[in-house]
Design a protein that fits this description.
Layout: E1 2-6, E2 9-13, E3 18-22, E4 28-35, E5 47-52, E6 55-69, E7 77-85, E8 94-103, H1 104-117, E9 122-126, E10 131-141, H2 142-153, E11 155-159, E12 164-169, E13 185-192, E14 200-216, E15 228-230, E16 240-243, E17 246-247, E18 253-255, E19 264-266, E20 272-275, E21 288-303, H3 305-314, E22 323-327, H4 334-348, E23 353-359, E24 369-374, E25 379-391, E26 399-406, H5 413-420, E27 426-429
Parallel strand pairs: 9-12, 10-27, 14-22, 18-19
Antiparallel strand pairs: 1-2, 1-5, 2-4, 3-4, 3-25, 4-7, 5-6, 6-7, 8-10, 11-12, 13-23, 14-21, 15-20, 16-17, 16-21, 19-20, 23-26, 24-25, 25-26
Length: 484
């Protein structure tokens, strides 16, 4: 039997309630309250706890309430409410602390947990993780501080239904059971798609810098008339100009349109240099050379040869090639482009499976690793739970609709999560920020003795203080009779 409590009071809820748990998102719940029982009202911030018999299946706080009349005769009020899980409690409080040379877990225990303890949060499973050289939390939400630690360690965090704070390695977040034919479930499906599959990846980035182009001879050759000369690449930096192997002084090279009185001019992202008109044009016997760093459009290609051969065998008579091009303006170096492209090939270079099923066994949450053993589908692997939707239309049972992803394209989820954990590295968080903490103190002082207080009358200007009639020059004095 299910029971719903708001602010500690039992309420009656219509059967259309739903709990949604999604990967990298907070668990949310929606429900309609048809009888508030002993509650005077329902308010944002009220606590909500849901039980299935004695099992606590959800706990959180209300973030929105919609009250409405249901019948123009009876005139009863229903309440549509939206709830977010207990992790939202970490949004309420700010942290202003500096931590140095501590593990991420110690920062959680020593700095974040004491603040949240005022909200009834206790310690759950808190693992150490990486060492943080310096972390400056400058009046940010405790949830934001936990997110910082999550991002740089590869760990995850949550506040569970019993208000316990957990900070843990993702590969240790195992589901409470193995899904096999002994576990009640139905509607099992396996879906495979090639929507994002690729084995040849092109990356088009922004303009990146070339290697140093040493003593390039621009065109045209000096001819006694030309003053503008063209380089192979647009200029990324100020060039070094040589005439007959003698370097032109750096102070004689300026930016076209900005500088004046120079001998030579250039412009960023332009592949021309120009000689000033006051200078004698170079003749055919002169040699003009330029050393510079240029700009070029980044365009790289990454291939998965094994993947191409595999598809060629399976798709007889074809090349086996699946190509994809990605534009990423933030990439500015060849190294970045190669790393990004390899990451995409790794992620989408294999055809991964998605499974879905419905069960009446509780305990599954998004982010857990669920071992699945289904011989009929030739499956024996760990799947990452992407979403869990909990509903209870039937008064006698609760259904859990589960979607999970396999980790084939990344070599298995456990290995993937272990790679995210950088135990041998140190990190800084906002190390350049300066934190100013506030302290309160009492300004009242006690003393003995007498104090002489003088009272002064309010001062007003005298009648003779005002300016004379001839104070303002160049004004014509006029007189007007305002009486008829």
């Amino acid at each position: 039997m299910r029971s719903f409590y708001i602010a500690g009071e039992l309420v009656t809820v219509s059967p259309n309630w739903n709990i949604s748990s999604k990967l990298n998102q907070r668990t949310t719940m929606s429900m309609t309250v048809v009888n508030i029982g002993n509650l005077p009202e329902i308010s944002e911030g009220d606590s909500v706890v849901v039980y299935n018999n004695t099992d606590k299946i959800f706990a959180g706080i209300i973030y929105s309430v919609r009250a409405y009349e249901t019948d123009e005769i009876v005139r009863e009020i229903n309440y549509d409410i939206q709830i977010v899980d207990n992790s939202a409690i970490a949004d309420k409080r700010l942290i202003a602390q500096v931590a140095e040379n501590k593990t991420a877990g110690d920062i959680v225990k020593d700095y974040i947990l004491p603040i949240l303890a005022d909200e009834g949060i206790t310690a759950g499973i808190i693992q150490n993780g990486s060492t943080i050289t310096k972390a400056v939390f400058n009046y940010i939400q405790c949830s934001a501080a936990l997110d910082y630690l999550k991002d740089i360690t590869g760990f995850n965090w949550k506040i569970d239904n019993d208000k316990r704070l957990h900070f843990f390695s993702r590969e240790t977040n195992a589901a409470p059971f193995t899904l096999n034919n002994l576990i009640p479930h139905d509607g099992f499906e396996k879906n495979s798609t090639m929507d994002n599959y690729r084995n040849k990846q092109y990356i088009r980035g922004s303009q990146g810098e070339t290697a140093v182009q040493t003593k390039e001879k621009p065109s045209p050759k000096p001819d006694g008339e030309s003053r503008t000369f063209t380089t192979r690449f647009p200029l990324a930096k100020k060039p070094i100009i040589f005439i007959n192997s003698v370097q032109v002084s750096d102070s004689d090279v300026g930016i076209n349109g900005l500088d004046t009185g120079k001998k030579w001019y250039f412009a960023y992202n332009s592949n021309t240099i120009t000689q000033d008109t006051s200078e004698t044009p170079l003749t055919s016997i002169d040699i003009l050379e330029i050393t510079y760093v240029g700009l070029r459009n980044l365009f790289v290609k990454i291939e998965n040869a094994t993947g191409i051969d595999d598809r060629k065998i399976k798709e007889t008579g074809t090349s086996g090639i699946y190509e994809n091009i990605t534009n990423e303006a933030t990439i500015q170096t060849t190294k970045q482009a190669l790393e990004y492209g390899n990451g995409l090939i790794q992620k989408y270079g294999e055809i991964s499976d998605t499974i879905s099923f419905i069960t009446t066994i509780g305990g599954l949450e998004a982010g857990q690793l669920l071992e699945v053993v289904k011989p009929l589908f030739n499956i024996k692997d760990n799947f990452l739970i992407e979403s869990v939707n909990i509903s209870g239309w039937d008064a006698d049972k609760i259904e859990y609709q589960v979607t999970a992803l396999d980790g084939a394209s990344i070599g298995g989820w456990e290995q993937f999560f272990k790679k995210l954990i950088n135990n041998n590295k140190t990190f800084n968080i906002s190390e350049n920020e300066v934190i100013i903490t506030l302290h309160t103190f009492n300004e009242n002082e006690k003393y003995n003795g007498q104090v002489e207080v003088k009272i002064f009358n309010v001062l007003y200007p005298s009648e003779t203080l005002y300016p004379s009639d001839n104070l303002y020059p160049n004004r014509i004095a006029t007189t007007q009779n305002i009486y008829d």
